[in-house]
Design goal:
Low-confidence stretches of chain A: none
CATH class of the largest domain in chain B: Alpha Beta
CATH architecture of chain A: Alpha-Beta Complex
Structural class of chain B: alpha+beta
Radius of gyration of chain A: 14 Å
Oligomer: heterodimer
Low-confidence stretches of chain B: none
Largest sheet of chain A: 3 strands, antiparallel
Strand content of chain A: 15-25%
Distance between the termini of chain A: 33 Å
Largest interface: A-B, 17 and 15 residues
Strand order of the largest sheet of chain A: 2-3-4
Largest sheet of chain B: 8 strands, mixed
CATH class of chain A: Alpha Beta
Number of helices of chain B: 7
CATH topology of the largest domain in chain B: Rossmann fold
Distance between the termini of chain B: 58 Å
Chain lengths: 110, 287
């Protein structure tokens, strides 16, 4: 288990400021994305852009909860349970992954 | 004037030269595709003239002049590029992969990776071990069946690669011509006359990586990692859209996927032999 560093906390705070507010934001997978599940992850295909993304099992798990109903906190809680992470680690992973998915326009607000 | 015809799955092309440029293996690009004389879908002609006291090579296709150069190496590279693009365009109903393909006992191995990852080296290695070959560079995947079809061109190999194999130190072993990346054209028929394998459903997907620090090993990898690397090496995935992803997913799911780290061709050959033997033993036990 890695420890949460000051840098991680700062990143979490930055992401909070940037709009990924736990308790408020409920990310939702973009409607244009086709998802195909694999044994250890998934592949996403953006039919509009023609882009393809592969996600590992952790990222794929997080994406599963990007349904417009789950908050960041709820996703982090599920992630902590599934992967045996501390709440801080899970929150850091979830925010980091959703930031990436958001940048690629694979998820967005409900 | 000499005119040679070639054919790949119904697409015919011809190369014509007034006299073969000295030292340029014009007829050795696709020896396995040599076909009967006759009408062709594409024609390229090389004429040699003189300009400013030196040779001037003029490459034409049906539309006109494609390239003019005094450099025979540049001429051949332009010609190869033009042929490659035409062949790939004619076979765009296949999903095309940047991969080498080898076959043993009706089992297919695809070595998938970018230039410099060792595809041609391992293809030569396994050809010398008795395997047949689909290609050292491009594999055509039939979308419906996931069968791998051959794209049999001459191997592109550096002199240093050929020197890894003492068996190849003969008069035909890629001497003379080398392209701007230092690669010569090597006809695999020197090793095995009927070297081109029949289409096959791949059993193994291997992603080679030259590892100078040693530690030769085949490491199993997961579907996501394999698919990610396959996508990077798919040539015409965009023209297939979502259907292309489905083809690659089926390929990954039907194959055992490995990462190969190697710095030694003998040890790599032993690893592949073990892999093939394990499948044969499994089949015998099952029978």
């Amino acid at each position: 288990m890695s420890r949460t560093t000051a840098e991680d906390k700062e990143k979490v705070e930055t992401d909070r400021r940037d709009g990924l507010m736990p308790g408020v934001y409920r990310p939702m997978k973009a409607k244009t994305i086709e998802q195909k599940d694999l044994r250890d992850g998934c592949v996403l295909y953006d039919a509009h852009k023609g882009d393809v993304y592969t996600l590992n099992s952790t990222a794929s798990f997080i994406l599963t909860y990007c349904n417009g109903d789950s908050t960041i906190e709820e996703i982090a809680r599920q992630s902590a349970l599934a992967f045996g992470l501390t709440p801080e680690e899970a929150m850091r992973d979830v925010i980091s992954m959703i930031s990436v998915l958001q940048e690629e326009e694979l998820v967005g607000p409900r | 004037m000499a005119r040679n015809c070639y054919e790949l799955f119904g697409f015919r092309f011809a190369l014509t030269a007034d006299r073969p440029p000295v030292g340029i293996p014009l007829w050795a690009l696709y020896p396995a595709l040599r076909s009967n004389p006759g009408p062709c879908d594409a024609e390229w002609t090389v004429r040699q003239a003189r300009a400013n006291g030196g040779p001037l090579y003029v490459l034409r296709d049906q539309q006109g002049v494609v390239h003019e150069t005094g450099d025979p190496v540049r001429l051949l590279e332009q010609l190869e590029w033009a042929i490659l693009l035409a062949l790939l365009a004619a076979q765009d109903h296949f999903l095309q992969l940047h991969a080498a393909g080898l076959v043993t006992y009706d089992r297919g191995l695809l070595l998938v990776g970018p230039s410099g990852s060792g595809k041609s080296t391992q293809a030569l290695n396994l050809l010398l071990a008795g395997w047949r070959c689909l290609s050292d560079e491009i594999i055509l995947i039939e979308p419906g069946s996931s069968r791998a079809w051959p794209f049999p061109r001459s191997f592109h190999a550096k002199a240093a690669t050929l020197r890894l194999f003492p068996e190849l130190r003969g008069p035909d072993a890629g001497r003379g011509f080398a392209d701007s990346s230092g690669k010569s054209r090597f006809d695999p028929a020197v090793i095995k006359k009927d070297w081109v394998a029949q289409p096959v459903r791949p059993t193994w997907l291997v992603f080679p990586r030259y590892s100078p620090s040693g530690g030769d090993e085949l490491t199993p990898i997961g579907e996501t990692e394999a698919l990610s690397m396959l996508i990077e090496q798919a040539i015409n995935l965009t023209s297939f859209g979502e259907g292309g992803i489905e083809v690659l997913i089926r390929l990954v799911r039907s194959c055992a996927c490995y990462r190969l780290n190697t710095s030694n061709v003998r040890r790599a050959r032993a690893l592949f032999s073990e892999l093939a033997a394990s499948v044969r033993l499994g089949e015998e036990a099952h029978a």
